[in-house]
Each structure stands twice: as structure tokens, then as C-alpha cells.
Amino acid sequence: MSARSTAVLAVVGAGPCATGLLERIAANAPELWAETRKLHIHLVDPYPPGPGRVWRHEQSALLRMNSMAQDVTLFTDESSTLDGPIRPGPSLAEWAAQFSGRGPRHTPYAEPADPEVLDELRTLTGTDFPTRRAQSAYLDWVFRRVLAEMPPSVTVEWHRTTATAVTGPPDGPQQVHLAGRAAPLTADLVVLAQGHLGSTPTAEHRDHAAFARRHGLFHLPPEFSADADLSGLRPGEHVILRGFGLAFIDLMSLLTEGRGGTFRTEADGSLTYLPSGREPVLHVGSRRGVPYHSKTHYRLQGPPPPLPCHFGPEAVDGLLAEDRPLDLRRDVWPLMAKEIGFGHYHELFHAHPERTTMPWPAFLAAYDRLDWYGDDMTALVADAVPDPADRLDLEALDRPLDGLSFPTPDAFQEHLRDHIARDVARRENPEFSADLGAFLALLSVYGHLPRLVASGRLTARSVADDLDGWWHGFFSFLASGPPGFRLRQLLALSRAGIVRFLGADVRIATDESTGTFTAASPTVPGHLTRATALIEAYLPVPSLARTEDPLLRRLYHEGAAAEEVIADSTHTHRSGLLAVSPTDGRLIDPSLGGPHPRRIALGVPTNHRAVAAFARPRTDAPAFRRNDAVARTVLRTLSATGAATSRGARADDGSWVDLGGLTGWAEEARNRW
């Protein structure tokens, strides 16, 4: 076909993942796309483009982000290391400031239709934790801005439905089949960017559901909080919740404030919960037995740490040069921990030098040459940092209940309330801003780990136990906790008897004789909790074999998509993640024996192991690098591929019809821009 024919890209998914890809396509198009050739992009998603399913407006106003407004962006900045151009844009806080006159207008300008969201945005500060509805409005605007920045030769069209299959030869056009429509979309290239996906229940969850049906109990498998049906829980009913992370915090809010309860602020700043009488009683436990650490509520008090320092490209190169299988905990973690420690002590010495005994250059000279777990490092820190509260103990942070047991449940309630109160106070006191330095170093470590993982040098056992097991949980525990006010609410609910803490390493069982779920923990030896409801308070784990997504399910069962399997002489690990090529995200197709040239996947379900979090400004976020690389691959591939079809689709009667959708929207947005 002529090089001037229209090229067609189909993107399955229209949420933040797809929006980030479109932003990078718009940014790279001036370099990689001929102005004389048209590109038409189909977006397929039953949920609104920009927010998508998870961040859609239609959810409870009680649900909030776990990031401050100033820490959320979808735009690259001067810290971004990309092959494509940097195109700065406002953070959520900077975008919201326009509605109160505290900041410039950002085009295309439009006020959110929901008056409650608009009121929130008018008072939102950089250190506030916004509602998810406010983030939904920001994502909607980002999407419209991306449309406005597309070159005139690029048009975008949204199909408000579900993609059920993708077919087509590896050397020819692809057909994307849509629910409720006879004619498929035809595209030169398909990108799968569905984001968070549900999974069918595991065998354990199916057994618990069957037990609940036999005894007339309530059971909820892992579910997205905004989609969970909690109406079956009765007032006063005892509920066991397994999981103490963000999903639990959401459920806690929905089952208390969401049922009419309120919090009263006392003279000393503490909260008292005033129940409505419609709340169930929540018994919560997990592996660690404690909630995720509270998010910090302050800025660095000293200069930013110069990251990376001990775990960056040079460190990864050094590990790969050893040409041997690597164990993450033995070979890699000591460097990662030293990097996190560097961020912590850099902030402590620069912002709070009165709590140290030597100048930073002297400390750093010794720190640089010592091993993190060596006795000399321990002695250095003890000498330079007199107060143990100022030292970084990653193991104590990771498992705060290890080695502890309590004679009665009430004794444990008191202990954990004290633990939570101290955690919140520390994370809101800038005197402990070294914790934020450690957090920023943790983000840096996360950003440099994917290249090591992609090398395939970690043993199968280490990927299973250390990477997908321990590291993922540890990162989330430290970096993805709730805002402090949520933990203060948790304390009030505990004092009111609405929430009861179960302990660490909680074990869930069923008792046929009494028709109840049970929970036990070694934290309170000999104590057994009985309940008539069980909630798995965590998000569905990505699983290609059990995915609820019809397109991925069909590809997998037809042998056109593969679950990541890592095997060596000692272990085989099936991660449940969709296997893609590490360089450009092309879908691994077992029927082809390698990557499919016309299918790409990115985001949470893939074995790139993206953490489901928004980018923080000026942190060289890995998501931007990934989106940029995929966008450049897409544009180069489409430039070299003959057009699949003209811009149109065959109607049910066999005639060709022009596609409307977002094309006019894009042109309008471009004119407003």
C-alpha cells in the first residue's frame, strides 16, 4: 500500500496505563512519524478514557489516594532519562490550583462537572491526600490534553466496550473483536494495556465460598474495593479480614463511615468514633500483623540525596559481570539496603546535624567502603548516630512483631495501638525526615531493579521467594501505606471495639461443627477468633491462568500467550504474569516460539513487574521510561508496516461506515489548546 495510507493502532484499555502510552506517542510523533501519513488509534475500554476502571468517578467519595497531591504526576520532567523528548506538565496539586486562582490555567480548561469534586479541588493543597474522584478528574484532563497534543495526522477513537479476542497472522493485520459488535476492528498493531485485572478464585477461595454457602455465611474473595458488594454484612456481625494493606483501609472506611458513623476530633487532637449501630465488628490480621507504614506528611528538610549512589547502573553492571546465578537476598539486597541507608543518613546528617557526632564527609567516606551488614558498618552508625531512633533498621521495620507474644488479646490491642500511634507521629514530624530520604532511595532502588530482573540472572527460587514474595511485600509495606489520618481513624475504631487486631502469621480455617470461620495467630497463643464472615482484604493477584479478562483468557487457552515460567535445576516458578520481551514489551507467543511482531503488552499483568503506583515528580519514574520505549517501538513499527485498512469499519449490512468517536473530540481539544 501507499506510504500515505492510514496506519491503525488498537490499544486495549484506556486507563492511566494507556493514557501514559498515548502521551509518549504524542511526544515522539514529531521525530518518528511522517506528517504526511495518517495514524488512527482505537481505544477499547468499557470505562472512561483517562481514569479507566479503577479511577472512574463512579465510586464512593470516602475512597482516597495514598499519595499527597504534590506527589502525583503523569508527565515527564528534568529527571526523566528517556530517548524521547521531555514534555513537562502539572502534578495533581498544580493542576488543582487553577480552580482556586492559586495557579495558572492549564488547557484544555474545563471545570469538573461534579460540584463536590470542584469544591475539593479548590481547597486542595500539595500535602493533602485527595479523593479518588479528584484523581479521576485529573486523569480525565490529562487524557484530553494528550488528545490536544497529538499531531493533526493522528486521530483517536474510543470504543466503549470490551475487547474479547485478537486474531490475525504474525505478518499481517490484526483483528480486535468487540463485545456486542459483529465486525472486528482491523489494526496494523495491537497494544494490550488493560491495567488491573480480576482473577477467578483460587482453590482455597472456592473452598471458603462453598463453606459459606453451606452455612449461610458471608465470603468475599480478593476484589477491587470500589466493586465490592458489602451489603450482605449485618450490623454487629463478626468479620475476619485477611490483609492489612490499602484494601483493608478502604473496606474499613466503607464499613464504618460508609454506614453512617462519624469521627469527632477531641481537644488533644485524637479521634473518637461515634458509631451508627450498623457497623460489623472487624477482626484483622496478616503476615506481619500490622498496617502498612503511614505515608510521610512533610518534605525533605535538607538537599535531595544524589541518587543513585550504591545501587544504580554501575552496581547492576557489576553484578551482571560476575556471570553466575544471583540470589536477590544474598547478592543484591545488601547493595539495595545500602542505597536506602544512604538516602536515610544523607537527610539525617544534612537536615539534623545536631543529632550526629561527625561531619557528613567523614561519615560518607567510611560508609562508602563498608558492607551494609558488616560489623564495621554497625560500629560506624552507632558511633555517628547516638540515638537508636535515628538509625535505620530495615529488619525491625519489616517484621515488627517477630519474637513477640502476648498473654491476652487485650494486651495485644494495647501494644498495637501504641505501635500505630508512634508510627503516625513519626511520619508527621519533620524531625524524622530521614525516613523520607530512605523512601526516596527506596523508589530509586525500585527503578534500577528491572534491568537486573530482565537479565534472567536471578535464580528461579529467588524470583519466587525473594522478588515476587518478600521484596514486593516489603516495598509496598514501606512505600504504599495509607495517610496518617486513616491510621488515626483506625486507632479510634480500635478503641471503640469496632476493629480488633488478630496478630501476625494469621491462620484462617473453617469449623463445620459450629459453622464459623476461625482465625488464630502465634502473636496471641491459644486464642481463637470465630466469625460468620470472611473477607480477603487484598487485591486480586495477577494470574494469566485465572484471568477474568476474556481477551487474555482466549489468547492463553489458544496457546498464543504465555505465563512467565522461570526454571533452573533446583526450582520452577510460575509467576502468573503475562510473558513479554524485556526490551520492547512484545507478547511472547508460544505458537511462534518467541515475540509476536504485531502484539505488545505493558502494565500490571506483565512480567515487567510494574508497581501499580503513579509517578512521583522528579524521581525518574520507571513507568515513563517503559512508556517511552514502547511508544517509540509502536511508531517505528507502524512506520515500517503497510496500512491494515482505511479509517472505517464494515457495518452489519456489509457497508462501510465512517468512525466518529473521539476524532471530533480530539480536533476540538486541539483547537482549544
TrEMBL record:
InterPro entries: HpyO/CreE_NAD-binding, L-asp_N-monooxygenase_NS-form. It comes from the Bacteria. Signal peptide: none annotated. Residues 10-196 form the FAD-dependent urate hydroxylase HpyO/Asp monooxygenase CreE-like FAD/NAD(P)-binding domain. Coiled coil: none annotated. Pfam families: NAD_binding_9 (PF13454). PANTHER family: BLR0577 PROTEIN (PTHR40254:SF1). This is FAD/NAD(P)-binding protein. It comes from Streptomyces thermoalcalitolerans. The lineage of its organism: Bacteria, Bacillati, Actinomycetota, Actinomycetes, Kitasatosporales.
